[in-house]
Design a protein that fits this description.
By secondary structure, the protein is mostly helical. It has a single domain, classed as Four Helix Bundle (Hemerythrin (Met), subunit A) (Up-down Bundle). It is 71% helix and 0% strand. The protein is built from five helices and no strands. The protein has helices at 20-41, 48-74, 80-102, 107-130, 132-137. Helix 1 runs antiparallel to helix 4 (107-130) and helix 3 (80-102) packs antiparallel against helix 4 (107-130). The protein starts with 19 loop residues before the first helix and ends in a 7-residue tail after the last helix.
């Protein structure tokens, strides 16, 4: 089966979680992907710009996931365990990417794969899991 390539993801209100800080962080990830794609267009596969992007994503996965998980736990969000499991899978993917990228003779392909992974992650993860927080914030969830 051939996977359709995602060319661009754009922020939409459908991605809103109801938490302004989480939404801002998600928007930052959208911006990150745009910058990564720009590096790919400019054939920059190593160097300071790519290093800065990788540094951003490394910090982002730590701080954003912790904050989002804390918000879901405090709001008793029914998908909090599913969210934490998805974050764990993301972190594993990213750690594997970092290891491969460090020693790669084909950084272009790895960075393209990262871009595609992140685009699909944003759409799938935010729309299927993170948006549940919105109902918890606005009191529309039956917790038992």
């Amino acid at each position: 089966m051939i996977m359709e390539k995602v060319t661009k993801v754009v922020w939409s209100d459908e991605y809103s979680t109801g938490n302004k800080e989480i939404d801002k962080q998600h928007k930052d990830l959208f911006d990150f992907i745009d910058k990564l794609d720009l590096c790919l267009e400019q054939e920059l596969y190593f160097g300071p710009q790519v290093d800065a992007l990788i540094g951003f994503l490394t910090a982002y996965t730590k701080s954003h996931f912790i904050y989002e998980e804390m918000c879901m736990r405090s709001r008793l969000c029914p998908v909090k365990e599913k969210n934490e499991k998805a974050h764990g899978a993301f972190i594993q993917y990213y750690q594997d990417f970092i290891q491969e990228y460090r020693y790669s003779d084909a950084p272009k392909e790895l960075l393209e794969d990262l871009s595609q992974f992140l685009k699909k992650w944003l759409v799938d993860h935010i729309c299927k899991i993170d948006v549940h927080l919105r109902d918890c914030i606005y009191g529309k969830v039956n917790r038992g």
